[in-house]
Records
---
Amino acid sequence: MARVLVIDDDEEHRLLARTMLEGAGHQVEEAHDGEDGLRRFGRNRPDIVLTDINMPGVDGHEVISALKVLHADVPIIAISGGGVVGKDELLLQAARLGAAEVIMKPFEYQQLLGAVGRALRM
């Protein structure tokens, strides 16, 4: 299965994603924000990245932009629950930046695993 890096400042969402992905046989590494995620990516390049958009400091759009410049071949799934700007707009922006898939929070098991499967086949 795949090595997945989950970047999210919300511990509950990281745990939910980890539980779902590990239940499907994936190896998961967690990062608590964008800066931590980019650092962990550099140390142990994953097969796929799942990143939240709204995070303090380095947000998900910046993560996507940085990874697409340096590692364009690594698929990225963007997730968002919204914020000041609606989640639809945040996810549309993520897709424009190069996210292979976009998911709205809260997500379900089949939704997450389907997105991971499609992104890995790209």
---
Amino acid sequence: MADIKYYDVILKPVVTEKSMNAMADKKYTFLVHTDATKSQIKEAVEKMFAGTKVKSVNTMNLDGKNRRRGMVVGKTAKTKKAIVALTEDSKDIEIFEGL
């Protein structure tokens, strides 16, 4: 396993209707590196977004989907999704403010 720095852990935020509704409860959804652990995700969120305190991290491993183009069969890449819950006295994450 390669050494993953905190700035390599979070790839991008997930912007869906369900994830936007969860932001009212201070839960934010991110696509993360497939080898990242919960403690690495917690550290990355607290370092990248100043003033945030992580209460819990839930992760999901998503397998790639089967895709076909004519006779060629392949799979899309595996992904990992993390739902990060912040504490009540924590600041909100700014990237989601304008959405």
